[in-house]
Amino acid sequence: MEIVRRLRHASVEFFTLVDGEYQRTAEAVAGQRLRVDQPFEIDLDPRELLP
C-alpha cells in the first residue's frame, strides 16, 4: 500500500503481488472509498488521513 498525503490532498494505492510483480489493484483519492478484502479487509476514504 502506498499513501500520499499533502496539504488538503490524500491518495491511497493498493498493490497485489501477481506472478512476481506488484500490480495496482485499487486506488482512491480524498472523497472516494478504497475497499479491498485481501489479504485483509480495508475500507477507507483517504480524506480520513488528513488533519
Automatic annotation (TrEMBL):
This is Restriction endonuclease domain-containing protein. It comes from Plantactinospora solaniradicis. It comes from the Bacteria.
